[in-house]
Each structure stands twice: as C-alpha cells, then as structure tokens.
Design goal:
Helix content is 40%, strand content 21%. By secondary structure, it is of the alpha/beta class. It has a ten-stranded mixed β-sheet with strand order 2-1-3-12-11-4-5-10-8-9, with helices on both faces. Helix 1 packs parallel to helix 13. The structure holds 3-isopropylmalic acid and magnesium ion. 3-isopropylmalic acid binds next to loops.
Length: 388
C-alpha cells in the first residue's frame, strides 16, 4: 500500500484487465447485499482509474426459480458459469423449500463439481466493531488480538452426501449420514491450510480433530496431517479436539492464528468465530478451487435472513469483506486492502446497521463506503489526473 507517490500518478496499463464476474444474488437479503457489493466493486475500479474493471452477468438462480421451473440451475448452467473469473453469491434458503433441497440444488451444486475444496473464513474484530469478548473477559486487548483464518474442508467429510433412508415410514425407519474422508481430499486441503499459515506473519496452524471418538475417518485425517506437516517445518502447529477448541477460541483468542478443520467442525467453529468478532453480519467466505481450473465462489456467511429482507436494513459489511476477498483472489491485493480500510473507517465513524448497534440502513453504509473508497483512492494516488 501507498508505494505510489501523490506527485506521480500511475498511468492506466495499456490494456486494463476486465474481470468477468457471475452474480447469483438468490434468496432473501441476497439481492440487496449483492447489489451493494457490486456498487462497491465498481467504485473500487473507479478509485484505481479503471486499472481493472468488472463486467457482471446476473443469474436468476434462486428458490423462486426452483419453485417455477423445478430447478435451481438450468440445463447447461454450470458450463455457462465455468467461463467466469469468479462468482459472487448472495444467499440461498427459503421457507417454501426444505433447506437440504435448496443447499444441494444451488450452493453445493456449484461447490462440488467446481472442486471448490477450500473454504476460507477470515475472522477479525474490525475497527469500529465491538467483540462480545471485550465485555465477558473484561479485556478489550484480547478481543483486539482476534485475527484468525479458518480453513474449512469443503468437498467431503460430513457433507459428502453419502447415506440413505430405509424402512420408510416404519417405526424402525433409519437414516444414515456417512462422513467421507479420503487421503487425497485430506491432503489437498491440509496443504492449502499449511500454505495459508505460512503466508501469515505468525506461521501458526491449529489442526482440529475429533479422533478420540471418531476412530476411522478422523484418524486418517490425523495421519495425513502428520505427513503433510513434515513439508512445512517453518509452520508451528498444534492439535485440538473440536470441543476443546470452542473453549480456547473464547478464552484464549490471542493464541490462535490459522485453523484447519473438517467441513462440519469448521462450519460450527466459524459461526462461533463470527459471533466473537462482533456479528455474523460481517463474516465473509471464499469457496476456492486452489488449482484455479474452475472459478471460485465468494459469499457472505449470513444467509438469506428473510425476516429483514426488503426492508433496507441488511448489513452489507459481510458482502463488502467478501468482495475484498474476491479482488485479492484476482490478484488485486492493494485494492482489497483499500476496500477493507474504507470499510473499517466507515464503521469507526459509527455508520453501521442495527445488528452492530448503529442506526444506518444498507444504502447509507454502502454510499459512505463508496465515498471513502474514492477518498482513499485519491489520497493514495490511484486516480490518474484528469480521470476523476
Ligand atoms: C455455512 C452455512 C451452510 C453450511 C448452510 C447454509 C447449509 O451454515 O456456509 O456455514 O452449513 O455450509
Ligand atoms: Mg455455517
């Protein structure tokens, strides 16, 4: 950041990069927060003098579409989606459709075939946001040290989709849900987690398991970890059982940096993490295909929140942070940093939605963040003279 002086503004590159982004706003507050995210991304491009631009294509894949057509994703839809640089996803979930149908019909129907096996969930107490840890521990300092990245296995484990139902309708009906752990699936995700830990200043990875009770899949998960760890001698690792991990996250947040866990364990831990960082309304998620053969998908964690949908009060911060993760994945680290700075400055000024203790609506937060992006763009001289 800030390596370009104000006196010598950067010239736009001869051929600016255009990123083709598929947007899937889907259900509930999804459309509101995604349209706020698109405004912020376009403003970011402007603040960088169109050094990069975004070209959005909207897909109306949602529960409404499912109820009308019987499908979330039309025939050939995934081939269409494959052409994009990245996917910006809102939220899926609707009271009229059972949750497992909507999840498997849309979100997992993209994550699984696109091999988005690494789910990345950064958690940090943003400037201007109060962590509940500050009051329950009486220590604001500890809460401020909460700066984690949770790496969630995103392709198998407890979400592998294996299982079945027998003796339907009988008193002795059974249902099974089989957790699947493959050596390859564990290894590719663990390598990604070690590399993530390696790229962060503390180079520290906490490996989460439950191999004391689950004696097959989880033991394989542990064994693969022990092998992979050898290739990353500079990463300091420790091992936690998932139940004990919840205590450590709450009582010693400063002792944690990067965390790796299975699909379900990390699902649960990341909700706890979001709450400890102040609100589920601010947390982002990236569903990554680290091989970059397929587009990766970026979404706020919060879900469809129908109770506040259409009221203009949804917190767009989770989507803005998600957008920062998206641009970072596309190689625009400076832009991601600037967006996060703008976002945190606005939160610090007290412009926040009700879930964060403020009074502002979605639009007000969005326009303030856009103003701040443009201001920082000028301050850091990313604007080219005459283009403002
Ligand atoms: C998440 C969510 C989803 C999940 C739900 C909506 C199925 O909780 O992204 O964390 O469990 O993966
Ligand atoms: Mg979850």
């Amino acid at each position: 950041m800030g390596s370009i002086s104000a006196e010598q503004p950067v010239a736009p590159p001869p051929s600016a990069t255009t990123f083709n982004i598929a947007s899937i706003p889907a259900d509930g507050i999804g459309p509101e927060v995604i349209s706020a995210g698109i405004k912020v991304l376009n403003t970011l491009s402007q603040a960088f003098s169109s050094h990069f631009t975004f070209n959005f294509t909207h897909f109306d894949w949602s529960s409404d579409t499912y109820l009308k057509t019987g499908r979330y994703i039309p025939e050939g839809g995934l081939d269409e989606l494959r052409k994009f640089h990245a996917i910006l996803f809102g939220a899926v979930g609707d009271l009229r459709v059972p949750d497992h149908i909507s999840l498997w019909g849309l979100r997992l129907a993209i994550c699984q075939p696109f091999q988005q096996y690494a789910n990345v969930r950064p958690t940090r107490v943003l400037r201007g946001v109060m962590s509940p840890l500050a009051s329950c521990q009486g220590s604001l300092e500890n809460a401020k040290k909460l700066d984690w990245v949770i790496i969630r296995e995103n392709s198998e484990g407890e979400y592998a989709g294996q299982g079945g139902r027998s003796h339907l309708g009988q008193l002795w009906e059974v249902g099974t849900e089989v957790s699947v752990f493959s050596r390859h699936g564990c290894e590719r995700l663990l390598r990604f987690a070690y590399e993530t830990a390696q790229s962060r200043p503390r180079k520290k990875l906490t490996f989460v398991t439950k191999s004391n009770a689950q004696r097959n899949g989880m033991v394989l998960w542990d064994e693969v970890n022990a092998i992979v760890a050898k290739d990353y001698p500079d990463v300091e690792t420790d091992k936690m059982l998932v139940d004990a991990m919840t205590c450590r996250m709450t009582l010693q947040p400063e002792s944690i940096d990067t965390v790796v866990a299975t699909n379900l364990h990390a699902d649960i831990l990341s909700d706890l993490a979001a709450a400890l960082a102040g609100s589920i309304g601010i947390a982002p998620t990236s569903n990554l295909d680290p091989t970059r053969k397929n587009p990766s998908m970026f979404e706020p964690i919060h879900g469809s929140a129908w109770d506040i949908a259409g009221k203009g009060v949804a917190n767009p911060v989770g989507t803005f942070w998600t957008c920062a993760e998206l641009v970072r994945w596309l190689g625009q680290g400076e832009a991601a940093d600037l967006l996060m700075d703008a976002l945190e400055t606005v939160l610090e000024q007290g412009v926040k939605t009700r879930d964060l203790g403020g009074q502002a609506g979605t639009e007000e937060v969005t326009s303030k963040v856009c103003e701040e992006i443009l201001r920082l763009g000028k301050e850091r001289a990313f604007f080219v003279k005459g283009k403002e």
